[in-house]
Design a protein that fits this description.
alpha+beta; four-stranded antiparallel β-sheet; 2 helices
Length: about 100
Amino acid sequence: MSLPEAHISSLLVQVSPEHLSQTQELILEFKEAEIYGVSEVGKIVVVLETQTEGFISDIIGKISDMPGVLGATMVYHQIDNEPIESAESTNLPPYKKECVSEEQV
């Protein structure tokens, strides 16, 4: 996504384990959200890419109000003022699901 200003943030969402699947589905309905890790004990790592900081707080509020969500906390926030480069041109390793362990989530 190329934006004049991009806000990249990550959230830790804690949810009751019985609501885990439903919460994941609801989070993925936000076009700005991607899920990068899930723990069966009820933790979800979410990455957001938004145009303004206000969108971040709006999404955090909506996630916090979802059934079974115990809390949603922002743990990282970065502002990019230029278009975001692709992972290939930044020398970042590709995301691998097995890189996230339960202890890290």
